[in-house]
Amino acid sequence: MRKGFQIVTVVIGVAGWASGAEVQVQVSSREIMLGESLTVRVSVINAAEHDPPTLPASADYSVLGPPQRTENSQIRISNGRRTTLSTVSYQFSVAAK
Fold this sequence. Notes:
Order of helices and strands: HEEEEE
Strand content: over 45%
Radius of gyration: 15 Å
Number of strands: 5
Oligomer: single chain
Number of helices: 1
């Protein structure tokens, strides 16, 4: 059970690099057993620029390949005001060792 919480802590620490942007972290499971994997999704919202996140090496888990990157943009017009919301998400597969 503790491995899932350690992964979230590591990702939150890594995700602090997107200055001025909102960063969200989602984990697919709160606990995993040895040999199982989970998905960690790091979303960067409204960042002008940012470097892709990386997960540091750990004896507790291994990252299964590079993250999958997706982009999403929304434009809203309400009472003549235009609002743009852009999100870049990175999805990591992580396995407990």
